[in-house]
């Protein structure tokens, strides 16, 4: 299936991190060498917000750029909130990410993370130019910089806990931010990225890195992207186990030896270019996918 025509499926938190055989996933998404730090309040803390849910437009690089903002119902202007940016796939839209409308509303909102977050998190769905993230001349990274300044001047955000994730082209954009803004984002999650198609300016800094990739989806590319941060984060080199073809399972490995607070986790699954893989059956399943739960566990360890 092409990237342009791919539709995402709904998602639910898996009850446990298991392989199709019922055995434990390697590493299990556990925190190894991870450190926590106090919240750092943005300029918007302590004031009445003017930004609310819905579509917003800002100027960035001489262009009108848009994003969808989702402020939790229980938003407290005096408590710094986690910030998560969800990047759409090629041909997708910010609306698709924010609503989950491609398959099932709410369940798939922000790749299934919103319904796990309660009132803890401000979510943002940026809109790419021509529904992609070519990042020409670095303009998409600049857009993210401008977006963060705009939001954090108004809302109470924990600037030590910013996260980015995306599937396919959105995964490539999240990877680009890992390369170019490792001191801005606490962690990224990269799903099925088809390569460095959004660029990798810099690329030498350490950042907490979670990746998921299907073994039938040019997995060598996913391994190559991952290995940059295995090296950058000082993790011990290894060849993580991956599920056999036909096993219909997944194996999650958390690397050892990584620098404090900079873990690398790799989730390989028996499947293709899909965003909601399930264990025990081919294709995607909103009710059985394990990926949002493992991603949320990775983000919230900080």
Question: What secondary-structure arrangement, pairings included, does this model have?
Answer:
Elements: E1 54-60, E2 63-70, E3 81-87, H1 94-99, H2 114-117, E4 121-126, H3 139-152, E5 157-167, H4 169-180, E6 187-191, E7 208-214, H5 219-232, E8 250-254, E9 264-269, H6 291-300
Parallel strand pairs: 3-4, 3-5, 5-6, 6-7, 7-9
Antiparallel strand pairs: 1-2, 2-4, 8-9
Overview of the structural elements:
- There is one protein chain.
- The chain is an alpha/beta fold.
- 20% of the residues lie in helices and 21% in strands.
- It has six helices and nine strands; from the N terminus they run E-E-E-H-H-E-H-E-H-E-E-H-E-E-H.
- It has helices at 94-99, 114-117, 139-152, 169-180, 219-232, 291-300, and strands spanning 54-60, 63-70, 81-87, 121-126, 157-167, 187-191, 208-214, 250-254, 264-269.
- A nine-stranded mixed sheet has the order 1-2-4-3-5-6-7-9-8, with helices on both faces.
- The model is unreliable at 1-33 (pLDDT under 50).
Roughly what percent helix?
10-25%
Major sheet size, sense and barrel closure: 9 strands, mixed
Strand ordering within the main sheet: 1-2-4-3-5-6-7-9-8
Number of helices: 6
Q: Radius of gyration in whole Å, from Cα?
A: 18 Å
Kindly name the structural category: alpha/beta
Low-confidence stretches: 1-33
Query: Order of helices and strands, N to C?
Result: EEEHHEHEHEEHEEH
Give the CA-based shape: globular
């Amino acid at each position: 299936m092409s990237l342009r025509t791919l539709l995402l499926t709904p998602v639910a938190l898996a009850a446990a991190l298991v392989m199709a055989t019922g055995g434990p996933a390697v590493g299990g998404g556990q925190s190894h060498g991870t450190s926590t730090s106090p919240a750092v309040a943005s300029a918007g803390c302590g004031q009445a917000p003017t930004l609310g849910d819905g579509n917003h437009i800002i100027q960035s690089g001489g262009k009108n750029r848009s994003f969808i903002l989702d402020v939790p119902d229980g938003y407290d202007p005096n408590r710094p909130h986690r910030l998560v940016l969800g990047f759409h796939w090629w041909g997708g839209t910010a609306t698709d990410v924010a609503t989950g409308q491609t398959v099932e509303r709410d369940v798939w909102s922000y790749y299934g993370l919103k319904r796990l977050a309660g009132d803890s998190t401000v979510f943002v769905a940026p809109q790419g130019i021509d529904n992609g993230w070519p990042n020409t001349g670095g303009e998409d990274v600049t857009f993210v910089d401008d977006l963060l300044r705009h939001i954090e001047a108004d809302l109470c955000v924990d600037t030590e806990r910013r996260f980015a994730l995306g599937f396919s082209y959105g995964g490539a954009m999240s990877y680009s931010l890992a390369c170019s803004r490792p001191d801005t984002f606490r962690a990224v999650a990269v799903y099925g990225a088809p390569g460095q198609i959004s660029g990798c300016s810099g690329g030498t800094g350490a950042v907490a890195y979670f990746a998921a990739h299907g073994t039938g989806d040019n997995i060598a590319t996913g391994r190559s992207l991952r290995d940059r941060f295995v090296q950058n984060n000082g993790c011990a080199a290894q060849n993580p186990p991956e599920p056999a073809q036909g096993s219909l399972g997944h194996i999650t490995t958390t690397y050892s030896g990584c620098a404090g607070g900079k873990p690398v986790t790799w989730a390989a699954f028996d499947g293709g270019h899909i965003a909601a893989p399930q264990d025990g059956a081919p294709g995607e399943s909103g009710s059985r996918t394990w990926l949002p739960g493992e991603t949320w566990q990775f983000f919230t360890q900080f």
